Amino acid sequence: MGSSRGSHFLCSIGTSDYPLTTYTLNDRQHTTAPVATAVLLELKGARASVLVTREAQERWYQSLAAELEHAGLGVEPVVVQPVENESQLLAVVHTLIGCIAEGERVVLDVTFSLRHLPFVYFTALTYLVAYRSVEIGGLYYGASEITLRDGAGAPISPIIDLTLLFSLVRWYHAVQAARESGWLVTLVRQLNEELGRLFQRQQPHLDLTRVKTPLRTLADALASGLPLETGLAAQQVSNQLRQLEMRTPAGMVELSVDHLKDWIEDWVLSVSPYHSSLEAAKRWIALNEDELRSQLRLVRWYLKRGDLPKGWLLLREWLVSFVLLRVGNAAHWLQQEQRERALRLLRSWAVRADPNVGLPLGPVEQRVASLWQQLSEKRNRIAHAGMTTQWVSLSKDELTNLVRECEDVLEKSSGWAPALPPVSTLLVTPLGLSPGVLYSALKLLQPASLMVVTSATAAPRLEEAIEQAGARDLPLLVRQLDDPYLGFRQVDQLIDPEVDRALINARQVVLNLTGGTTVLQYAVERIGRRAQQLGLPLRKVALVDRRPLAEQQAHPYVVGDAIELEAEDPPGE
Q1: Count of domains forming the chain
Q2: Long-range contacts of 172-181 (CB under 8 A, 24+ apart)
Q3: Pair (353, 491) in one structural domain
């Protein structure tokens, strides 16, 4: 087996009269168990621990130790008390754990163990593998009760490799962790170890190797809460499992990974497998009701395993996708600008649902707005790791009810499309002592409605500027500041439900950032920020009059130039 440095040979001896036989392993022979295991596995240089009672130490230990030392192992006795009750059983477990060092490679021979000792060994080794990074080099049993005869008629007994049984326990743990918590990383790690063991034995398992990479991708996607990556990786794993099932007899490893089939069928995405990469395949994922149902099943899967944060995050994004499907933007549903437009629409519905705003919504929009408010509030607190003065708690029942609501609204909204408001533009502009700015804005931008922020001093010029621009019939909302030079603190008081209604009734808001005092311009910026909160796209412009100041004052009603600063498309475009 090559170098045995760092190996620890563990065995025991009792007080019985043991049968004389020759032990065989891998076509090699040696007399006397458990020395035969150490010799045939070439453990020269390893240290050996022999579990003995005081009686066994006096009867057989010395001769066994001498043979092990002759085979090149350093030997120490580990004296334990005979086991008669639970506390003595635990004492043996602790003694075993104490004699094995961190990171050692343990080879165990159970040939002369008392009936309870194999269970003690398994318990101790399970602990050591989990908490001390111990490696299992092999578990062996010299089956003296199986007696064959060699050519000379001498008795021969096989040494049976029991390592498979310990691996099976670890596979069970990995599958259990995956089933109960959704944590597939342990399963991936166990698969890697098994493939490495098979490679060392020169028994590579190519079909099983092909499962490894997509399973790792699936584990990472699930752990990160990525539904589309999960679906694509699940498709790859499912394909490889089918191939494995057709080509390979069902062994321990195959049965373990086969447990995945039943879970992942709910997530598999129906995308052509012939793309050059998963990233390329992702661009072809279609947004439809089946895809939305699949994502809700994944949310329920996280819910069942108590992973509530991922459930909240996924459900919030699910609602954005739902709106894109119903609005008719399904073809580009993964483009960020399209998702931003859906977000703006959801935010505007949430504000419309506020009874203080007083703008009606249809029954589906009302229901979706309610879902959005509940989901976004909790999701934001989770996304920011609870960094708020409010207590953050996650309720499985609350999330379960929201999933049920989303399932219901999906099924009952077939054929429904939200009624988008007609394309219209609201101009929000300051008005100072130069009415020509407002005149130019009205003439150049041609808004459908107007909101003016002004002062008592400048307000008398408002009607005149509107009259000169031919915009007398334009819907108008005026907000007036008491102090146009220092009235910064009054600005937020101007943004009331009436301002919200004016903003939401528009489908796009244009901010003119020129004209008036700094306070008036600041008020316009604040109204623009409120428009963004309501989900409305903004355009920002500056109006320029290149004439001398004296000429502007003498002839204010001359159209200047509009310079586009920033622009966003309205939702649904």
Answers
A1: 4
A2: 172/256, 174/256, 175/256, 175/259, 178/259, 178/260, 179/259, 179/263, 180/305, 181/305, 181/306, 181/307
A3: no
